[in-house]
Every structure is written in C-alpha cells, then in structure tokens.
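Provenance

Sequences were taken from public entries as deposited. Structures were produced by running a predictor on each sequence independently, with no templates supplied. The record for ATP-dependent DNA ligase family profile domain-containing protein from Biomphalaria glabrata is shown for reference.
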Amino acid sequence: MSEKLDGVRAFWNGRCFYSRLGNALYAPEFFTKDLPKDMHLDGELFGGRGQFQSTISIVKTSQSPKWNDIKYCVFDSPNMGKEVFETRMQRIKEYFENVNPSHAVFVEQTKCRSKEHLEEEMARLLNIGAEGIMLRKPNSIYRPCRSITLLKYKKFYYAEAVVIKHVKSNRYTCRALKCRMACGIQFYLGLTYNYLHSKFMRHPPKIGTIITYKFQELFVSGCPRFATFVGVCKDKTEPRDAQIRQVLNEEEV
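Predicted structure for ATP-dependent DNA ligase family profile domain-containing protein:
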C-alpha cells in the first residue's frame, strides 16, 4: 500500500509526458532530463498535499516558473510485459537509486499486515493532509484500466445543506441541485443516472429541503470537492457543516 497522491496523473514514454486521455503534458527540459529513455513510467505530477488546484495550473504549460515545486512521483511501469508488481517495483527502484533524478521520486510500498494496520496508516496519512491509500494486489500484472488488483481507500466527510434551486436538463429531469451550506456558501450537487439518484432526477427534493451529501475535502473557496448526493434529511430543521479535521505537520504526528 502507498499514499494516494492528489495530483495530475502522468505517463512517461521515454520522451514526454501524456495524460490518462493521451494528451501531451509539456514539462520543461530540466524537469525530464534524468528520466529513463528505455523505461515507461506511470506516476503523478504532485505539488504537495492540498495543492491540487495549483498543481493543475502549473502543469498546463512548460513556461510556468513553478515547475520546481512539482515532483514526478512514480508508482509503476507500463512496459514490462507480464512482470509482476514486485519485479516492476524493484527495477524502478534500482533505476532511481543509480540515477537519483532531481525532479522525480520513487513511491515506496508498504506491506499491509492487517485491517488494523490499514486503519492506522490511514489515520496517520489523514492527519498530515493526505487523500487516502492505494492498495495493490501482490504479484499482479500492470493493467492500464480500472482493475480489482488496484483499489482506492478514501474517507469522506458528511454534511447537510438546503436545496435552493433545481437545475434542469429538460422539462422532466433535474440534473443538479443548487445548495446552500450552513455557513452560507452555495454550490452545485450533481445527480447522475444510478439507482439512488434516478428517482430524484424525476422528482427532486423540494426547494427548502435539507439534504445530506458527502465530500472529500474543501476547495480554497470553501465549496466541497467531489460532493455526492446521499439523501433527504427528514429529521433536520437546520443544515450542519462538516467538522474538517486539523491537518498536522509530519513532525507533530
């Protein structure tokens, strides 16, 4: 297992970076000069915990003066055929130990000993502002798509908000709810075609209804990030904002 990094996913093909969708990501030459020419890499352009928005703005252009704030965190290699995960990690680690790239780091893996160990590591990472944990099945081969051999483990906050507007996609269907948090901040909560949301798309909660939603963290603006509709609160008269955990420095943990 390893920390789930909240950055920009980037693949290295020996010449340049490209995104999950195959779009080129143009990094300055000083940033890529130490990366291998004969080994493809899978990793994250990472600007630090809680810095997702600033990371995106930096990696959009090679001209940004802040590329020195970014690290390429490598956690796999796509072009090693049927080599198992442990073998791939060893080969990547050997390269990093021999070359010591100035703007890239090898993401170390920790063997998960038990559910208790997983929860302890999650608590430690959350206390320093991390997003969650990635769990890799031992002896697994590389797969470029979503796979049961690689799982995300994340925690969410739960809160309530008041519905103040319906955003319609047509006269019959509501595609989003405009909501107001207890602190007064307004945000949009999308509804998608799944078992839970489908009935609310046809019959959305009335204006003034208090709903429950979950989210991962707050943007700098105070709006919830990755907010998901959970349900209607029938026993609440006022919304309640989530109590966001205090992020500690690693030295304090």
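The first strand starts at residue 2 and ends at 4.
The first helix runs from residue 29 to 32.
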